[in-house]
């Protein structure tokens, strides 16, 4: 049987395709291209490292974490919150995490009944499958997200599904696919496509977004063009070994419902800096909407760290303040290994 089907692979057409692919792969390797990251994190240095969008909080917060093992990783956490704005965080939340080089399992349950679970699996060094499930109290529908990320030597590809279902007799949900490719050692171009359908009674919707990323010696610039008429541009620069700065601009162009044919233009520009000291990190940010924010993370001792967050809105004449204290405890064996510098060097879990 195998000899009878050998003509499918042993012919001039297949040989020509193999030679073309081998020649193309050799030329790609000769360019010395590196992995550019993902479309989702195309502006990670500015939006997720320098600016305060992912760090700001209000009220009082206390986090107690106990690490039982490092290989595999296992820890549990207790979080207490008071005075959180609009009740965004429950008064109490319990979470646990288990991580190995291939598997990551994490669960979180709050006193308000909110439940979140994460399960990631690394099939090989390049392919990771991620699942995220959330159940909110009082909500008629939860969230199920399934991601498949592939990291190549000079590209990244991802396929995501949000609440996929076939129970109505057809496919519903939100599906997204993205691809980011290094063109030169400095330039990377990407595309992201989205298909969604809330129900079989409504037609599906599609959208396509484009992005670009350029990396210099000590600076990175990126831009994104989304189908909804949104343009996002960012610029990050490393000023010194401990100082970083970034600028992020977001412009939205949408039809004005009150005026036929008129385009409504809205935009916000944010400027931020990040200072890293020996035992602390300070971030500051100001934007064109009149908001001034700062955040200070200070490690007082080995198991204790303090975080202070503050924001002043000059336009609305409002101020917000947050204070958090974190205790991270470990077993005596882990503390002895940490003090002696004999921590095991194992691959990180598939976060």
TrEMBL record:
Presence of keyword Transport: yes
GO cellular component term of the entry, any: pore complex
Any single biological process term in GO: monoatomic ion transport
A molecular-function term among this protein's GO annotations: porin activity
Membrane topology field: Multi-pass membrane protein
Keyword Transport: yes
Keywords assigned: Ion transport, Membrane, Mitochondrion, Mitochondrion outer membrane, Porin, Protein transport, Transmembrane, Transmembrane beta strand, Transport
Biological role: Channel-forming protein essential for import of protein precursors into mitochondria.
Family statement drawn from the similarity comment of this UniProt entry: Belongs to the Tom40 family.
Protein name (Swiss-Prot/TrEMBL): Translocase of outer membrane 40 kDa subunit
Taxonomic source organism: Helicocarpus griseus UAMH5409
